Amino acid sequence: MYANGRHQNIGNTERLVSGLVGTSLLVYSAICPRKFKIATAVGGIGLVYRGIRGNSKVYDILGIDRNKPRIRIFRSLLSQEPLYIG
Question: Are 55 and 9 in contact (CB under 8 A)?
């Protein structure tokens, strides 16, 4: 949970991919033709910000939460703790 009340609604894999794609767009904006430089930089900054924060405003609006707990498959025979996969 964030200090401003927002929770993470993006899973770790999606955060990583957003950060990598955003960084790639920022690097590309440094070397791309002039007319696409601003658009790619803005897109890259948005994706990097999304990856760092772990929160998507679009997901908030649509009610999507991809940062749910892992799926419980079955209980372990040796302990009372559930075994999680994912």
Answer: yes
85: three-class secondary structure by DSSP = strand
User: Residue 55 has which token pair?
Assistant: 């929160």
Structure tokens at 76: 């372990």
The span from the CA of 31 to the CA of 10, in Å, is 30
Spans of all domains in the chain: 12-85
- Report pTM: 0.69
Residues in contact with 51: Cβ distance below 8 Å, sequence separation at least 6, in sequence order: 10, 15, 16, 17, 18, 19, 20, 22
**SS3 of the chain: helix, strand, coil, percent, to 5:** 55, 10, 35
| Alpha-carbon span 25 to 39, nearest angstrom | 9
| pLDDT at residue 64 greater than cutoff 50 | yes
Question: Are 66 and 52 a contacting pair, CB within 8 Å?
Answer: no
